[in-house]
Amino acid sequence: MNTQLTAYVTTDHIRDLFSSAMSAMYQAEVPQYATLLKLVAEVNQATLAKQPALAEQLKMNGELARLNVERHGAIRLGTAAELGMMRRLFAVLGMQAVGYYDLAVAGVPVHSTAFRPTEPSALARNPFRIFTSLLRLELIENLALREQAAANLAKRDIFTPRLRALIRDFDRQGGLTEPQAREFVIEALETFRWHATATVDLATYQELHQAHPLIADVVCFNGPHINHLTPRTLDIDEAQLRMPQMGMVAKALIEGPPQRHCPILLRQTSFKAQVESIVFADGQVGAHSARFGEIEQRGAALTAKGRALYDALLTKADESKAELDNVARQRQLAAIFSAFTDDEATLRRQGLAFFHYQLTSAGEAARGRYLAETLPDKEQLLEQGLLSAAPLTYEDFLPVSAAGIFQSNLGANKPSVPTAKADIAQIMPFNGQEEPSNSQIQFEQALGCAVIDPFTLYAQQERQSYAQAMQLLLKA
Ligand code: OOG
Ligand code: NI
Prior knowledge:
The protein is α+β, with helices and mostly antiparallel strands. The protein has a single domain, classed as Uncharacterised protein PF07063, DUF1338 (2,3-Dihydroxybiphenyl 1,2-Dioxygenase, domain 1, Roll), CATH 3.10.180.80. The protein is built from 19 helices and 11 strands. The chain has a 5-stranded mixed sheet. Strands 6-9 form a two-stranded antiparallel sheet. Mean pLDDT is 92; it is low at 412-432. Bound molecules: 2-oxoadipic acid (OOG) and nickel (II) ion (NI).
């Protein structure tokens, strides 16, 4: 038998193919997104020129070549079956559902997860994630409209027959060959493509849009068009300033924590969704807006304790957010976040952030010097310079930030779901300590499995890196 035929490519490789194909498609579909990528590349280059130490660090970590490559995108799904199938699609790309985000509490009628790689090596290769939301039709109060929306969703299949067959092949074989992987990517792109024609007439669209713009966005089209992609910027404040200069209507505020010496979690901003021409089922021409571009800057993953402090400080800041422009908002955040230590060693000692441990070159030289009984403790090893600790990067999302990004694309009058409290401060962090809510249980039923708790992942990585370093130190 020809072994070539049974050699499967890695899911990391397929994710790489997929994310670059998706980027090319989105740049062609949304020209302003191509402009955003240019802006990000310029800002990143200028930042590297100003900060040679940062450039050196990125080079050492092998991050320079991938710097301007997309970090995430987002879609919105309509049914449980779509979410379940999407889980199988993303498994082909080495992406699993991590975290649960209930956005209904912020007046956005969806709940979400992030499909992403979980292994450190896979994240290093290509961290591409898709923030995936499921519409909550039960939050439409008008029963007739709810039934019409459900009927419309029941009629569509967002996956091509060939894609379904390839996913079955993957599940059965445990992998795809290179030609199958390439075909998979082409077929998968069909799911994420834009549709300039709606499946409903203009009046129905307007009615659904009135109920909530997101309902219209999900229900009226034949697929869950990718609604944004997000590259990594090294200076989000500079990028925010430059967006208008390049003709983009920037979101009013940067979401997340303020600029810090030791960055934490995730900072995000975007240009607002463009208005696009749509042909409706009755031949009438109208408009719809869904697609935007976003940028992100990531910092340290916080422990549950660090996250609770972040949430408390953000809640305090959000008590008066509405009246502030971005410059004033960042000043306000900086003042409030002075209560959150900006010293790396303190973050670690106080158990506020997760860290990756590694033997230093002195530690390598000291291998075999200790027995298990004489091994110094962690603080001593760090102090003696045998061990180093670097913050683990936050790989997930923030519910309040996500709600802010949703809201900024919903038009001027910011509608919210009547049955849910539109109080952003009420969004609870997902910390894996509490019992899953009813809505999370429903979401996981649709998904076909439980979501992975992000805090557990970071804790595991931290523990493993330390155990590995100690193992090495003990071995000559
Ligand atoms: C997703 C909005 C949230 C993020 O990065 O938190 C988001 C959407 O609009 O579908 O993109
Ligand atoms: Ni996003």
